[in-house]
C-alpha cells in the first residue's frame, strides 16, 4: 500500500479533509458471498463517498444514518464468519438510498487508515447536516448546491457547459423550459459570448433560474422606507412578537456586515434560518415536567419491533430495535419462541426470518439509552417452553444487569414510579417463575372493565386498536379516568399484514400511553407518531394534557378555531425517481383532529414545474377541539400524474401546538421520513380563536343566532 500523505489537507467550506481520502484509498468491501478490494474516495463538492460498482457506487454523506464500529459490528462479523482480528479495522455505514435502508461493510488495511476514515466521515457528516438539515447558512447552502450541480453537469471535467449540458441539468432539477427561453437565459449568463458557461457564468445562470418573485414581492411590501433596505423598525413590525433585545439580535445577525443593514439577501437568509423554524424551538428540547408517574405520559411505542418488512414474510433483524431507539421509541416488543439452540424471535406461524433472543437483548443493552435517558419498557410475547423461558430470564438478567428493574423501587408505593427514577425495564409475560420474577411495573392482565376495584396500580391492559375503539364510545370519561392511574397498551389489529397503521391520535385522546405502531411503514399513522414525539426533545415521553392526568381538571372550553394556511410556493421538489419525468405538483393540507375524519384541502396543479412552482393559495380550516397538542397538521406534495399510485412525493407533519405562525419554510420528508436536503414549501399561517357560549337567558332571536353559529361549525367540522 502507498504511504498515506498526512502533510497536506484538502479544505472546502471550512472543512478540512485528508487528501488521501480525496485521492482514494483501498478498502476491503464485504458483502454476502464475497470480499473485494476496492478504491473508495470522498468527493467533497458532491458530498459523496464513491467507489467503482456496476450498481450505484455512491453514498450521499447526508443520507448516512450511523457509522458503526467496535462491539456494534460484532454481529455482522459473526454473520459473515470472519476472524476477530479484523474487528478493530471494520466500520459499517448505515445509509438511506431512495427510501431504503442499506449497509456498506468496510475493513481498512491499517488502524491508522481506519481512524482517518472514521474521523473525516464524522466531521464531514456533521458539517453537511448542519448546513442542509438546519435550513440555515443560506450562503453556504447555495455554495454547496452550486458545487454539487456544477460537477454533475460538467461530466467531462473541462469546466465548460454547453446549452445541451444545461438542458440536461434543468431536466434533472425538475425545470421545464422551452429551448428558446433557456437559450435566452444561457446567452444572458454567457457574458463573454464564449458559447459555453464557465463556473462564474453558471452562477449567473443559477441566479436567473432561482429568482424568487414571491420573496421579492414580500420584501418590497415590507421595505417601504428605503426600498432596497429593510429597517430595524420594519423588521420589528414584521415579527411583532419578540422581546426588544431579540429583535436587535436577529436583525444585526442577518444584516449585511459592511453596512449593518438588512437587504433582500439577509432577509431571505433569516426566513430560511433555524431562527425562523416552523417548529417551536423550545419544543425541540426536553421542557416538560419529567417527575410525574409513568401513566401521565404518552410513550413512544413500537409493535413487532424486530420486523423490517411485512408481517407474513418480512425480515427479522436487531436493526429494527436500533432504528426504533434512534427514532425515539421507549417501548419495544419481542415475540419469543422455542429455537433449536435457545429462544428465538420472529412472527410466529409465518415465513418471517428468525433471530436469536440473545442478540436482541444485546442490541437493547447497547442502544436503549444512547438516544434518550428515560425508561424502556420491553413487551414480551412469550410462546416458549418452560426450559427456554428459564434461558430467557438468564439472558435478561445477565445481559441487562443493573439496568433491569427486578423489584419495586419503594415499599409503600401506591402509584407507578415517576419517569426520572432511572427505571430501565419492565416486562409483559405470563410464564415460568424465573421469568415472572422479573415482572414489576407492567403486569398485563385480561381486560375486565374500567371499574375493576381489584386492579393494582402496576397492572395494565393490552388491547388491539379495534377493541379500544369500541370502548371509546360508551364511556369515554371512564377510559380517561382509568388511564390516569394505569398504563394501557394499544397495538395494531392482526389483519394489518402489510404493516400499515391506525391513526394514533384517536387513541391518545383518552390518555392511552403505549400506542404501538408498525414502524416498518412510514404511513399517516407513523407520521403522526413521529410528529408527536418530536416534541420534548425527542426523548420518547410527552406529558399528557392536564385533563387526561388530573381528575379534577376543568372541562374543555367550547372554542371555535380557524386555521389559515397560505401555500405560497415550493422549492426544488423531488422526482419520483432519478430519471423520472418533470412533475406536475399540487399540495394537499390535512387537519387531523382526534375523534373526527381528516379535513383536507388542496391547491391547484402546476404543470411541468417541480423546481419553483407558485400557488399563492389560501386554505381555511375551522375546528372545535381544545387540546392543541393532539391536533396535527400535515402537508403532502403530490405529482398529479402519479396520484393513482397513492404514493406522495414528500410530506411533513407537525403538532398544531408546535407550529410557529407567520411566514415559514416547511421541510419535506421522503417515503421513510428522511428530510430532503433542498426541498421545501414556503407558507404563511395564522390561527384565530373564538369562545362560544350560549346565552343563559336568550330571547328567540338570540337562540336562533346561537344555534346558527353552532350548526355552521358542525357542518364545517364534518366536511
Overview of the structural elements:
With 719 residues, this protein is of the alpha+beta class. It contains 20 helices and 28 strands. The chain is 29% helix and 23% strand. The protein has a 7-stranded antiparallel β-sheet. Strand 1 and strand 2 form a beta hairpin. The longest helix has 23 residues, at 111-133.
Broad structural category: alpha+beta
Portion in beta strands:
15-25%
Mean pLDDT: 87
What characteristic shape results from the CA principal axes?
Answer: globular
Helix proportion of residues, in percent?
A: 25-40%
Sequence stretches where pLDDT stays below 50 over 5 or more residues: 1-13, 423-430, 694-719
The largest pleated sheet is described as: 7 strands, antiparallel
**SS summary, helix count:** 20
| Extended strand count | 28
Radius of gyration: 28 Å
Major beta sheet, strand line-up: 6-5-4-3-9-8-7
End-to-end separation in angstroms reads: 70 Å
List its salient traits.
719 residues; alpha+beta; seven-stranded antiparallel β-sheet; five-stranded parallel β-sheet; 20 helices; 28 strands; 29% helix; 23% strand; disordered N terminus; disordered C terminus; 2200_t:CDS:1
Question: Which SSEs are present, and which pair or pack?
Answer:
Elements: E1 10-12, E2 15-17, H1 19-23, E3 25-31, E4 34-43, E5 48-51, E6 58-60, E7 64-68, H2 74-79, E8 90-97, E9 100-107, H3 111-133, H4 138-153, H5 163-172, H6 179-189, H7 199-209, H8 213-222, H9 232-239, H10 244-253, H11 264-272, E10 297-299, E11 301-302, H12 319-326, E12 331-337, E13 344-345, E14 355-356, H13 357-367, E15 377-382, H14 386-400, H15 433-436, E16 443-444, E17 459-464, H16 465-472, H17 476-485, E18 488-491, H18 505-508, E19 514-517, H19 524-532, E20 541-543, E21 559-571, E22 585-592, E23 599-602, E24 614-623, E25 632-639, E26 650-655, E27 662-669, E28 675-691, H20 700-718
Parallel strand pairs: 11-19, 12-15, 16-17, 17-18, 18-19
Antiparallel strand pairs: 1-2, 3-4, 3-9, 4-5, 5-6, 7-8, 8-9, 10-20, 12-13, 13-14, 21-24, 21-28, 22-23, 22-25, 25-26, 27-28
